[in-house]
Structures are given as C-alpha cells and as structure tokens.
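It would be a great kindness if you could assist me with a short task in structural biology. The matter concerns a single protein, recorded as an amino acid sequence and a row of backbone structure tokens. Could you please explain, in whatever detail you think fit, how the structure tokens follow from the sequence? Thank you for your consideration; the sequence and its tokens are set out here:
___
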Amino acid sequence: MSLQSANSLVQRIFFANYFCGICAIGLSIEASLQQSFPLNSLFYYATLFAVTVLYYTIAYIQETSADTTNLRLLWYRQHRKFVMRSQVAMSLIILAFVVYVLQGNFSRFIQMPLRQWLLIFIFPLIAIAYYGLGSKTLGGYNLRNVGWLKPFVIGFVWAGLVTIYPVLFYDITNNVAYQFTFIGSLLFLKNFMFVTVLGIMFDIKDYAMDYNKELKTFVVKVGLRSTIFFILIPLCMLGFGTFLTYGFTHHFSVIKMLLNTIPFIALITVAFSMKQRRPILYYLIIIDGLLLVKAVCGSVAMVWF
C-alpha cells in the first residue's frame, strides 16, 4: 500500500467517524463484562456502530461554513458521495434492527415499566438536544451553545450508550426487569467522567473558533493552563478514584488493578500534552484512541484476570 493510499484510508476511518463506532462497541463490551452480563448479538453491536457513525456525521453534513483551513471539513466536501452512501447504509442497519427487535419483543415493550422507557429515551433526547431542537420550534436552541456544558452532555450520552444500553437491551430481550446496581452506577460515573475529560480536550482544539463565536467553553473562560490543571486533572482523578474505590472494595488482583489503571495514566499524560498545539488527526487518533485503550484494558482484565 502506497503512502497516499494509507493516508486516504486513515482519513476515511477517522474523518468518517468509523473509529468512534469501533470505540463505542469496545466500551459496550467492556461494560457488559464488568457488570457480569453476557454479550449481546453481533446485530446489536453493528447497530451501535451505525448509530454512532450516523450521529457524529450529521454535524459535518450540515456544516455550511466557508472555512477552507479545516482539514476535516474539506474532506467531507471532497467525499460527499461516499459520506452520503455511508449514511444511507447506517440508516438501513438501524431500521432493520428496530424492525427485528420489535418483531420479536413487541409484547415485552408494551409491558415494560416506566423506568425502562425513561432509560431508553433520555439519552437519545439529550443527544438530539445537543445538536438542536429546530430553529422554528425553539429558535435554533441547542446544548452545544452552552460552552461549559458541552463536554458533560457528551459524557452523559456516551455513558448511557455504552454502560446502560447493553444491559438494558439484554434485559428486554430476555424479559427481565432492569435493575440499578452499585457497580452499574460506578461504571456509569467512571465512563461519564472519562468521556467528559475527552470532550474538554476537544474544546481545546476548537479554542480559536469558540473564542471568535464567544462560546464560553472552559478553555475560553479560564485559559489553557487552568483548564488542564484545575479541570482536566481533577476530573481524571475523580474517575480514577471511582475505579480504585470499587477495585479495592471488591479485592481486585494486582494485575487487574494495573490494567485498569493504564487508561487513566494515559488520560493524564495526554492532558499534559495539550499544552502544545496539535493537528486534528492527533485528536481523532490519540484522544479518541483513549476510549479504545480503556475498553481493551478493561475487557482483558475481566476475561483473563
């Protein structure tokens, strides 16, 4: 494979959000294992991949900025046909999955308690509100415009997607009532904090653009150094502390503790690296890659140790 072909493949995987879909699958598998639940079907994980790709691609399809320096935006303009075909394929996977699930579990959905319905809808509704609820209905209001809130919204939705949904779907398809558990709550908090930190790191990438738009993200409001030392690092430590609390109280082995420590050490290391300006692929490969590192380390620790 030539260098040009390799570069084209890398851009397609990361710019088209396929890597995000892979990370979502990895984190979902990790969460199921950590909650001692069986894994779901391949169809479920294919749909999870499709939902993630579809959602993250929508923002770039709708982007109308004339910015010619944004490498990712330029890629979308140059590969519009490929992107649209990908979106159609992802939509068909999701539609087929919905039909498949309803066909075999319709009566179970009707009989589900209210808390399960709330869990099904709360995360998609907040995800929709992140992009906007429609200019005609609420004047184009969206949660992205609340700069400091953006990473927490992203963290909340991801935590629900990869921590609650795998167990919830398994319970529904096996006619079991979903139960809130201590470990499930801790894992939700850990994933919430982990993804929120990554969201703040991405805000650092968009500092100049957010500053011009007067979008009050953390880095715009308090500056780069304060964001790293007084926001990123404390959030990293909160997530790390959540894990240590659970690990020690449940007598994890030394190897299991060390494996689950790797993602947090990597997260803190990358947080310190944000003091220097980085190209966009650094964020998409290294920062998003931390999600996959976490998923792999957590899954290996559960399966083998």
